[in-house]
Amino acid sequence: MARAAVPRRLGDRLRWRVATLVARREETPVATTLVLEVPDWPGHLPGQHVDVRLTAEDGYSTQRSYSIASAPDGDLVQLTVQQVADGEVSPYLARELRPGDLLELRGPVGGWFVWRAAEPEPVLLVAGGSGIVPLMAMIRTRRTLGGRAPFRLVYSVRIPEDRLYRSELQRPDPGVDVASLYTRRAPDGWPRPPGRLTADDLAGAGWPVEFAPSVYVCGPTGFVEHAADLLVDLGHDPQRIRTERFGPSGG
């Protein structure tokens, strides 16, 4: 049977590459950023992800998908891995992998949930928990490329200790406004009591509907569905709301 031709660029992105861990950063007690050197990396757009494959000595292999956390940077790719309790892959990546270790990586993958620096319209980012990762890639790309589109980020986590990229998001970043909210426990003196994301949160920290922002929502499935419903109820165009959700995958 004849095989369909695979375009060269697509075929290149579908092949597995050997990546080397060159650095790691502890983001929270259960999340680690891995800085990988990937020879001949084809580049990526913020919002894309990669597949990571681990293979044991007996030949058993397993793979998981992880969002890219970094702006394009030559052959370097950053992934932030949150450890899943009883997971098969994430505990090894987050706790055992050391500089010099190798793993296999394929990508980048995805073309819908991406932001391009040439787009001029305002951007609203809505993140739940580790859903901040691909949105952080957008913020970093904007900064690296000198993008002029103004950003607003609404970031929801359970408790303060769960916040990823805390110090980076606290630094002044012209054109990027950050609003954090907590669902279980807030810092002492925080003006908003703990609770689920509301329409008032999005209306107050987001863009007015008449600004027609591009909206990116990422997080657990329940959070994403809830946030998207609130945005539509506020009058945002559903065609301008892009969502990326994740759920249990075995870790």
UniProtKB/TrEMBL annotation:
Domain of life: Bacteria
UniProt entry tagged with the keyword Iron-sulfur: yes
Keyword Iron-sulfur: yes
Segments traversing the membrane: none
FAD-binding FR-type domain span: 14-115
Cofactor annotation: FAD
Coiled-coil features, chain-numbered ranges: none
Alphabetical UniProt keywords: 2Fe-2S, Iron, Iron-sulfur, Metal-binding
CDD domains in the record: FNR_iron_sulfur_binding_3 (cd06217)
Alphabetized PROSITE patterns for the sequence: FAD_FR
Name of this chain's protein: Ferredoxin reductase
